[in-house]
Write a structure and sequence with these properties.
Elements lengths: L2 H5 L6 H8 L3 H10 L7 E5 L5 H9 L4 E6 L2 H10 L4 E4 L10 E7 L8 H14 E12 L5 H15 L5 H14 L5 H10 L2 E9 L2 E8 L1
Parallel strand pairs: 1-2, 1-4, 2-3, 4-5
Antiparallel strand pairs: 5-7, 6-7
Helix pairs in contact: 3-4
C-alpha cells in the first residue's frame, strides 16, 4: 500500500493534508534539517516520500549528494520534482542496501518497521553505512512509556485532528493508523539506537512526537 492510500488521501493532496494530520509538522522538519552537518557529502533519506525533509536538508548541506529510498513509485515522482538531481531508489529501506553516507534522515517512516528486533537491525545497518562521526536524524511519533502519559499525548494528537475533522473522522484516523504503524516509546527508541552504537540526543520533544539525533561513535 502506498503512503497516500495508507492515509486515505490522494497523492496530490498529500503535502497539504499531512499538516492537518501531524501537529508541529513544519517545526519538526525544520529542527531535523537544521541538525544536519553543513559539510555532509552524502545524505540518505529513508522513506523519502515527496522529498519534504530532503529539500530542507539541502538548504543546510548545500553541496551534499542526496539519496532517497521509498517503496512508493508515485511518491518518488513527487520527490524528483522537489529534490532535483537526487538519486531515488524504489525499494524498501528494510531490504535494499543503504549506501555509504555522512547522514541518514527519516520523517514518519521508521514507524512502519513492525518489530523492535527489525528496527534494531535497521539501526545496525544504518550505523554500518555511516562514516565515523556520521549522524542519523529521525522525526517520528515516539510516545511516553507510561500509559497514563501516552493517553494524554494521543488526546493532544486527536485535538489537532479536530481542528480539521469531526470527532468520528479523527477517531477513525487514529484507529486506522494504529493498525498499520508501530509507535515505539521514546525511551525504547533511544535504547535501540544506543544498542547500535549511537550517542543519542533528543533535539525536540512535544506530546507524542520527537526529533532524535544519533551520532555514530
Amino acid at each position: 500500500m502506498g503512503v497516500a492510500a495508507h492515509l486515505g488521501i490522494d497523492l496530490a493532496q498529500y503535502d497539504a493534508r499531512i499538516r492537518t494530520f501531524i501537529p508541529h509538522y513544519e517545526e519538526m522538519l525544520d529542527v531535523a534539517a537544521s541538525a544536519i552537518d553543513p559539510d555532509s557529502g552524502t545524505v540518505v533519506d529513508l522513506g523519502v516520500g515527496t522529498g519534504a525533509l530532503s529539500a530542507r536538508c539541502r538548504t543546510v548541506a548545500t553541496t551534499a549528494k542526496f539519496v532517497g529510498i521509498d517503496s512508493d513509485p508515485e511518491m518518488l515522482k513527487a520527490a524528483e520534482k522537489r529534490v532535483p538531481g537526487a538519486k531515488l531508489i524504489c525499494n524498501s529501506f528494510l531490504r535494499c542496501e543503504i549506501p555509504p553516507c555522512d547522514a541518514v534522515v527519516a520523517s514518519f517512516a521508521l514507524h512502519h518497521v513492525r518489530t523492535r528486533s527489525a528496527k534494531g537491525a535497521l539501526y545496525q545497518r544504518i550505523a554500518t553505512a555511516l562514516c565515523s562521526g556520521g549522524q542519523i536524524v529521525n522525526v517520528d511519533c515516539q510516545p511516553a512509556q507510561e500509559k497514563r502519559i501516552a493517553r494524554r499525548q494521543f488526546e493532544a494528537w486527536k485535538a489537532h485532528l479536530r481542528l480539521s475533522y469531526d470527532e468520528q473522522q479523527s477517531s477513525d484516523f487514529l484507529a486506522a493508523w494504529a493498525k498499520e504503524d508501530v509507535y515505539v516509546p521514546l525511551a525504547s527508541e533511544i535504547a535501540l539506537m544506543e544498542q547500535a552504537g549511537f550517542r543519542v540526543e533528543v533535539l525536540w520533544r512535544k506530546d507524542a512526537f520527537a526529533v532524535l539525533e544519533g551520532r555514530r561513535s
